[in-house]
Amino acid sequence: MRKSSIEFQRNGDKENSPFFEEYLTKLLDERDRTGLTDMIGEIDVMMITVEPGCSVAYVGELCLMSPYQYLVTLESESHHTHVLRVDMNAPDILVREVKNPNTRGIFRSLNEVYPIGAHKPNSRYMGEVFRVTNLHEVVEQQKAREIRFFTQDQIRKLELPGNMAVVKPSPYTHNICGYWERPLDQLRVYSLGLSSIRNDVQDACLAAKELQARLHVADLILPIDHLATRVYSQNREAAILEYLSLSSYYYWGSYDIRDQNSSTNVTKSVHHSEERVSPAKVFTAANHPYFVNHLLQIPSPTENFVRNYGPRLHHIAFAVADGERNGKTNIDHVVDSIRSAGKDFLVQVIGSPEEGLKQIFSSASEHSSLIIEYVQRFNDFRGFFTKQNVSELTHAAGVEETLQALQAEAVAARPVDAR
Ligand SMILES: [Fe+2]
């Protein structure tokens, strides 16, 4: 019998409010009691949307930097949706591209009110879909808990798979979450458009896989370890509790990264201790809102990011197999190899085997605006980070983002016909 959702060991040093602690227990107890925790399984699918004309290049990029392979394209009236898969244990990724750049919709609107987000209005991580054992029952129970869903008609118009129930974007994270029913012995089948294997996407994937083989990295990059979302400081606790209400995840704990005015807050699946089956969901929020920065006089890269891009997924972290290759730790070998293939990283690999893990951030993808993190854990280390690593990573991402903000302002200042 599985543990109750509140019984998992707590990690971290960040203090929560009495409200958070009270409702954490109440929400998880109720979720367990009503059967939702048992009915909602792992993250089965993740959805990303990119700019028109960018999806093939983005599939190539993901296939180079991760274990994902191109499977098939679903063509619907106004979108191409490429399905990427590792295997049936790790979640699929759907990479979606709108055909007409003038198409407007809710996901675009979520980008458009933010100064940098507006520059790539179609690029964002949309959200994840959980495998459930009883779709009708999960949806009915969630509706009774005041969770709002898109109607079937809206799902059809949004050209999302018709066999999913999709919750409207979170007011705290702007991500969606969905549910679909799939017995474990059945493949994932998407009820959307016409499916075909496209030569151009296939070629992009094959070229990436050949390069991975030449670089001797293919066997070292493992499935997704965690997904990290950035939210406004005042929404930290609400975002965590909301996600626990939508999922079958538990609260692992929070670390205070005081010198970067930030905290990292981790939730994990109650059903799967292995992140490669169901990635951990991480929320990062500033400790203080932006308008007190001038009094505190400390950097605030997390709040800056949210103000520039809006609340959204910041990075996808892939695990790197523990071990060494060519006299380097695997993560150093992977990063050096992929860097030689023309991909940029924000800093050098940070951390050490003695500290338990090494990590690095890539530059943000020009196609999706998402950063890829690599993380190698040594021996039996089970943690997500060391405080020093997170501090350095947060700082590096902030520096990169400041540059982007300056570039965006420079573009905005130019006359329209000169852009
Ligand atoms: Fe991370």
Detailed description of the structure:
32% of the residues lie in helices and 28% in strands. The chain is α+β, with helices and mostly antiparallel strands and 419 residues long. Strand 3 and strand 4 form a beta hairpin. The protein starts with 10 loop residues before the first strand and ends in a 6-residue tail after the last helix. The model has no long low-confidence stretch (mean pLDDT 93). The structure holds fe (ii) ion. The site of fe (ii) ion (FE2) has 6 residues, from strand 10 and strand 14.
Helical stretch tally = 12
Sequence of strands across the biggest β-sheet? 1-11-12-13-10-14-19-18-17
| N/C terminus separation | 61 Å
- The shape is globular
The residue-averaged pLDDT reads: 93
Q: Which percent band covers the strand fraction?
A: 25-35%
Low-confidence stretches: none
Q: In terms of quaternary structure, what is this?
A: single chain
Report the sheet with the most strands, covering strand number, pairing sense and barrel closure: 9 strands, mixed
Helix content: 25-40%
For the CA atoms, what is the radius of gyration? 21 Å
Bound molecules: fe (ii) ion
Number of strands: 19
Coarse structural class: alpha+beta
